[in-house]
Amino acid sequence: MLNGINSAENPDRMKKSHFLCFLLSMIYLHMSGGGFQLFYHGQRQTGMGNAGTGLALDGSSIFFNPGSLVFNRSNSVQLGTNAIFTNTSFLENPNSIYQANMDTLLFTPIHFYTVWQGKKKVQERKWSFGLGINNPFLGGSKWQDDWNGKFISQELAINTFFMQPTASYKLTQQIGLGVGFSLGFLSFLSRRAIEVDGQGGRVGSVRLSGTGNGLGLNAGLFIQANERLSLGLSYRTPIFVNLKKGSVRFDVPESLRDVFPDTQFNTDITLPGTLNIGIGYRPDEKWTLAFDINFTGWQTYDSLIFDFAIPIKQLQKHPEEKAYQKSASFRMGGEYEVSPKFKFRAGAYFDQSPVPDGFVSPELPDANRIGLSAGLGLNFAPNLEIDLSYLFEYTGERTSFLSQSQFGGTYRSGTNVYGLGIRYNF
Q: Which helix (DSSP H) or strand (DSSP E) does residue 191 occupy?
């Protein structure tokens, strides 16, 4: 996704951008394979392997498929969150005793939806409107400051908040269309060690942080083919984010402050678009089944241009090519209504990594992922529903080296995700 620096720029501008390109490239490594692009935007869907494009379940249609929103049963207010725990270890090579463990971090993405239906009866309804707030991109990492890969990464944190006002229109009794405007806010922080004397002796660090915003669309088509079969298609556009006056701060000896002055930078980032295809099937009144395919356009990251307000000659780096590829994920799950007050859910998925060998980095190592999930739906009152979910994601082992730095080894990762959602229908 990052294929170096635009060669049309003048040499001085290229030199200014090389180091920051190298440093911030860590952000996009974690975006691959669904690791940074989160699908935890509805507890019912999370319990079913994050599948939901082909279903009209609740207010989460605002995210999964705006076209199905008009087929929701009632007005509603919905709030949910997840607790994500990720553990990653690094082994330098099979014959080495050196091993490092990434600190266990807690991420808590939220989702909020409110839905207003023009008419309560689905058969009479033509319009539905909604508002969604969520964190579709969220993640980070933190290694020990003195670990062997400290010159590549010590810490990374990135977050987004998206607001999406949505309208859904029923073309016929079987077909719904929907569109939402996604206003996204992005923030990040990254930190790594630097050699301050060029002799491999004294070590300092550099910390970068910045914020930006962008605008995109989320459009969907929903077809209720018959009482049992439904089909969904949705597309979230790439979002162009402009980061201005980002902060560059150095932790170096006071005697070197003139050599490493704090400064600012500007850059542009494009968050990838996603095409989603879904099928929903209800074999009887008790069962609901779902199958999704997601295609993410990571190849949009062909280059990044960063400008320092003050050039830092000692931190010039060569651009780092990524050779990223398009990726796909496959999700399936089901819900079984044990009784009017109790539902059980289960699901599984496979996420394909777009990062080829030779480009895997310790900033947030990526590999193909397999996920298993389960969930419960509890109806304590006629209009109040509580949803619980649990998901385990297994990344497994991947041995790879960064071609440019020749740093690498074997990475092992596993993620536990716990979810809680509350929905009030009125």
A: strand 175-195
Question: Is residue 2 one of the residues assigned to a domain?
Answer: no
Number of domains in the chain: 1
| Domain housing 128 | 11-425
- Measure the CA–CA gap between 45 and 299, rounded to whole angstroms: 27
* DSSP class of 403: T
Instruction: Indicate the pTM of the whole model.
Output: 0.86
Residue 4 falls inside a structural domain: no
Measured between its terminal Cα atoms, the distance across the chain in Å is 45
pLDDT at 302: 61
For 304-363, write each residue's pLDDT tens digit.
666 788 887 666 554 456 667 889 999 999 999 999 999 999 999 999 988 778 777 787
Residue 365: its pLDDT value, please? Answer: 81
User: What's 346's domain CATH number?
Assistant: 2.40.160.60
Residue 3 maps to a domain:
no
Distance, C-alpha 5 to centroid of its chain: 25
d(CA 20, CA 246): 11
